[in-house]
Amino acid sequence: MAYTDLQERSHIRELQGMLNGISYYHPAIPRIIPDGIYGKSTADAVRAFQQYYGLRQTGEVSTATWEKIAEVYQELVDTAPEPLRAFPEQKNVCLLPGDRSFTILITQSILHELAGQFAEIPDCPLTGVFDEATLRALQPFQKISGLPVTPGLDCKTWNMLAQAGSDLLVG
Question: pTM above 0.85?
């Protein structure tokens, strides 16, 4: 049976997906978008992978390269869950109204769930933008949690929200 173009693109997309996943753990490997086309960006990512893992650097996928990519990818995805570090690591950071970020989206998601459990916490839309609705939900959470009511999302509030979010996942 002949190897069709569709099958070839599918295998290339699989290769690109594994390389893309590996690149999150190894920044020396360029991140690529799986498109099913073996172009320059895919060859560069393969070459970088080969260099990183001590394989002959050809930019082409030999059996040894394919097996190593599959092995590394499988090891990475089969590990224990990664913790998500969503808040900046500096203790004195405070996110304020008008800020937009993934951290705000996570905050809104937790507050949204808590709004269903606490009448004092109004619901807020999930936008990723620190708006008035987010502040109106955040401040009652701070009060309920024994924190100082502030005009923003500081490290202490984030830590309490993160714990509340973890409790929501477990509970």
Answer: no
